[in-house]
Amino acid sequence: MRIFTAMLAALAVAGGLNVVDHTAHAHGWRDGDRGPRPAAEAPLVIGHRGASGYLPEHTLESYALAIELGADFIEPDLVSTKDGHLIARHEPNITHTTDVASRPEFASRRRSGWLVDGAAESGFFASDFTLAEIKTLRARQPFAERPQQFNGKFEIPTFDEVVRLAQRKGRELGRTVGVYPETKHPTYHRALGLPLEEKLLQVLTRHGWNYREAPVFIQSFEQGNLVALNKMTRVRLVQLIDANDVRPDGSLDFTAPYDRPYDWTASGRPELLARTFAYLTTDEGLKEVRRYADGIGPWKRYIVSTAATSPPGTAPGEAALKTLPPSDLIQRAHKAGLLVHAYTFRNEAARLAGSYAGNPVNEVLQFFALGLDGVFTDFPDTAVAARVLHRLSSDPAYAECLTREERRGCER
Prior knowledge:
alpha/beta
């Protein structure tokens, strides 16, 4: 199946499938801007940390591969250096995604019990390094079962470099490639005197992408910084919605620090401390999100949860689980005028519920059929293939577009 999906993705990139430029129609809307929610477009493929299933995450090489495989957007997580530069790393703790632990010149920078959103961590943290020092480090693949031969080969990019790459690759390929930055731990960074929001918008402005129709979404698990960004920019905003885990019966677990947006916890306000992330998926919560954002980015288990098989299977990880009937979150979010981009879709058997019979395309197809507007995926080629198959299923006339010589009119 991997070969099949790669072939479809290659055809799409080459123009053989004449896939629509989805970012050109990646609609966002907010009260007072565009009125009713527009008609649904083909779902977006968002390269989660790039093509992180294949190359070390958050590197220019990983982002470039995601684009070559057909991703519409690339997703850089943003943390700050000591001197205020935004770099692409999944977390402030860079111990497992770089070679810093093997660099004797930085041994004294190791911290123990450092608090990130109230949770104690040990290791090396981006805010203790200047950009010049970060640039001496090299990226590592944090998932042991993924290719390790590229460890130590690629630099840590700045957000500025990521945007430049997206724009350059878009010109080369003749299609728009967007960026989907996440502000990581905004409350944490602001407490360090290293706020993310202003620097992020400065980069977008410098590259001409700080406007409403720009191919940009800004996402965050916190609410307060999205509310602030709503007053600072017209770029589209997305509220991420997390949980800690799934219980054996399929219900979601909200153990800290994945219980609620950390700014709610830090506020100490009783009405916010009484909520979990799940509040944001209620009708009341969706209406609240609609006042400052254009979409939600829920963990996929809010849409299709899983439960332990009975009797328990012997398969590893999620392969031992079965999917449960889908929720109505997508439909209710759409009714509220919100996009829905779900995370994270991965190919490995241990990260794929057994109901999908070991085929990751089956999972993406299910979510597309449910009306999802976009997927965050470590394997963009899989999602691109699923999108083609979804269109073939929902639009029988599209089959002719794949085979006829003249493809005009097939883009929509």
